[in-house]
Amino acid sequence: MKRIISIIVFVSIVLSDFIFAQKTDTYNFFLKFNEFYKSGDLINAEEVLLSVLDPKNNASKEYIVAAYNNLGIINHHLGKYKEALEYYNLAEIHISNKKQYSRELADIYINRAIIYGIQKSYTTAIDYFEKGIRIYQKIENPDKSVIYSISTAYIDIGIIYYEVKDYQTALKLFGKSSMLKTKYRLPEIAFAYLNIAKTYVKTGDSKKAEEFYQKSISQFKNEFGNEYYRLIDVYFDYSLFLRSVGRNEESLQTLRKALSICQKNYGEKHTLVSLSYKLIGDHYQYQDSYDSALCYYQKSLIAVVKDFNNPDIFSNPSIDSSLFNIRLLDNLKSKARALELLAGNQNDPEMKLKTIGKSLETLELALKLIDNIRNNYPSEESRIYLAENEKETYISAARIAAQLYTLSPDSSVKYKIYGIAQRAKAAVLRNEITGNELLYSAGIPDSLRKMQIRLTENIAAYNNLILEETRKTNPDSSKISLWKDALFDMNREKEKVSDEIGKVFPQYYDLIRKTEPVSPDIIQKQLNKDETIVDYLLSNQYSDGKRKLYIFLIAR
User: Fold this and answer.
1) Domain count, the chain
2) Who's near 210: CB < 8 A, 6+ residues apart?
3) What would the 3-class secondary structure string for 75-89 be?
4) C-alpha dihedral sign at 103, 106, 111, 117
5) Average confidence (pLDDT) over 360-385
6) Residue 532 DSSP symbol
7) Domain contains 354
8) Using CA atoms, how far apart are residues 94 and 60, in angstroms rounded to an integer?
9) What range defines the domain where residue 4 resides?
10) With contact defined as beta carbons under 8 Å apart, do 364 and 400 qualify?
11) Helix and strand numbers, DSSP H then E, in the chain
């Protein structure tokens, strides 16, 4: 589940500082940038800022600093962290030494720290957060916006210490944030309380964790109302805490509160509605109530697939019309596991066979979805999820197929088990090939490769922008429409680039095609009578100090 964190990206638009220059071309460029940025048109916003930097415009240093900083922000939104850092560096270079304690410099350091935090370069992130905070604190006569920036930076650096498990330092920083927000009546104190609660959970202080969860919930309600969409994430997190301390009924009721807010804000078809149902299903599975769990897992599937409404737990949706593929994938895996556990409790051989067969079918659907996600320009979040979960999904499929084989020792099931193992290894090989820059540089022109990378990153970023906008209580339909139009154009352009790469470097796609698994029948035909192939599939995860290992012998 996605953890709530309070990460702010500062946007330094200079309109208020340059009213006297309203008739200059540079000022008009910033007007256009502001318009494009607010509408969500990041690509045109980027183009306008690049125009500001054109030497012909002879822009002042203040404008140049703002342009570079905002280019960093845009590239941050697009997931281009390397480029964002480069722009922040250029912004810093153009700041006059006389402004070493300027608001602009502090903003740049905080923005840079946020990226290092995302990249898990925690020591560097801490250095930049601390430097940015020190600069804010040295600004003479700071206004309320500077105090707000300090209070938010305390939360952000506290999250870094939370990630490195220095919980006492994290608590001190979250406490500093809450004190500033209380003293100056700043917004979003609920985020400080929430992070304090989460940290007390890690230290084992359940009483304090409960106190600050309640403070966070109460503050969100007071500041934004009882149906505020961010309360959903708080309730998700609070329910897990309640379950961890054995308060199972309260945990379930908290999840139902989250579901109610989701339904009121989003209706029945939404990724967060789907997640709510899925977490309730997890609750029942944790209680060994597999029938109830499956009922809610089925509802979670219905909520995340546009044209699927079948409540029968033995039915599955098409994977081609989901609202969010990662959510659908997670739901399918949970349903498959619940079916597997239910089959383990069934005494009727025919029913057990049907249930375990449906479990395998559900997980095979998940494997197809993994292929779709990988082939359709995944976001950074999706890539991380696949890296952490892809192989274990194949292992689970092999385990369930092996159970099916013990119930019905059919040779086709045996071949299916080996086919799953082959696909798991083929996926690893494909990932290595597609991530090998030396391979690309050998045969693909730099211009095509750079265009392919740019389009892939932008497609993933715009998909994420749409997803985040739909989470809001009142999503901006004009932004979503603009992003979808941009996605359509970028996807068409990406197809053209892929076709061009295929023409100039056909060996690349030939290599990708060769990663497709070969059937055991063909392998056997290539073997001599005295030859045997030993193959295996090994899990990465330990259970009770052991890892699952599947060994296959292939002979003629």
Assistant:
1) 1
2) 197, 241
3) HHHCCCHHHHHHHHH
4) negative
5) 83
6) E
7) no
8) 10
9) 1-140
10) no
11) 23, 2
d(CA 484, CA 486): 5
Cβ atoms of 105 and 94 within 8 Å: the answer is no
Burial tier of 493 (Cβ tally within 10 Å: 0-12, 13-18, 19+): middle
Q: What is the CATH number of the domain that holds 24?
A: 1.25.40.10
Contacts of residue 186, Cβ cutoff 8 Å, sequence gap at least 6: 144, 147, 148, 151, 180
Q: Answer whether residue 202 is part of any domain.
A: no
d(CA 512, CA 431): 10
Return d(Cα 538, Cα 126) in angstroms, integer: 38
Tens digit of each residue's pLDDT (9 = 90 or more) over 139-159 = 989 999 999 999 999 999 999
Which phi and psi (to 5°) does residue 509 adopt? -70, -30
| Cβ-proximal residues to 288 (8 Å cutoff; 6+ apart), any chain | 341
Is there a contact between 128 and 153 (Cβ–Cβ < 8 Å)? no
| Residue 338 counted as domain residue | no
Residue 309 to residues 293, 299, 300, Cα–Cα distance (Å): 17, 8, 10
- Please state the rounded mean pLDDT for residues 131-139: 95
The closest of 331, 409, 323, 408 to 365, measured between CA atoms, is 331
**What b-and-e string marks burial along 344-376, b requiring 16 or more CB atoms within 10 Å of the CB?**
eeeeeeeebeebbbbbbebbbbbbebbeebbee
Give the contacts of 126 (CB within 8 A, at least 6 positions apart): 113, 157, 160, 161
Of 96, 107, 39, the C-alpha closest to 70 is 107
Structure tokens at 468: 């985040």
Average pLDDT value over all residues in the chain:
88
390 lies in some domain = no
20: confidence class by pLDDT, cuts 50, 70, 90: very low
Residues 399-402: contacts with CB within 8 Å, 24+ apart? Answer: 399/548, 400/336, 400/340, 400/356, 400/359, 400/360, 400/363, 401/360, 402/550
pTM of the model: 0.84
Kindly tell me if the per-residue pLDDT of 199 is higher than 90. Answer: yes
Cα dihedral sign, 134-137-138-144 = positive
Residue whose tokens read 């003479």: 140
